Amino acid sequence: MRVRIKEKSLLARFAAYNLKSNKMAIVFGKTILLHNTTKEDFLANTKWVRHEVAHVYQYQKKGLIYFIVAYLLDTFNLGYQYNRYEVDARNQEKNPHILNGIEFV
Question: Strand 24-28 and strand 103-104: pairing?
């Protein structure tokens, strides 16, 4: 699967502001949006890459609209830390196979 990486994303900047984070990566479909980090620095952090690729797979499995709605509802009801999609992505940070077949463009 081809996954696009976009630096200097305004959406990622907005997310970073709201989550009070210096650096940010968020996923929209098959695109990883970055704020305050470069593609090279992001790709050098395997744990972070695996986490974001887990979200790409979640989008693929659930579909764009369903995933966004479910993600936001989980965050609203359970909080960001306990959102089931974030819990899963954190678990996938240890999965060396999650990057198999992924091509970054």
Answer: unpaired
| Residue 103 β-bridge partners | 2
Within 8 A by CB and 6+ apart from 39, the residues are 5, 7, 104
Instruction: Assess contact for 1 and 100: CB atoms under 8 A.
Output: no
Burial (CB < 10 A; 0-12, 13-18, 19+), residue 7, is middle
Q: What is the pLDDT of residue 99?
A: 98
Give a three-class secondary structure readout of 68-88.
HHHHHHHHHHHCHHHCHHHHH
**Stated pTM of the model:** 0.94
Q: Which amino acid is at 23?
A: K
Q: How many residues comprise the chain?
A: 105
Cβ atoms < 10 Å from Cβ of 29: 15
Residue with tokens 């704020």: 35
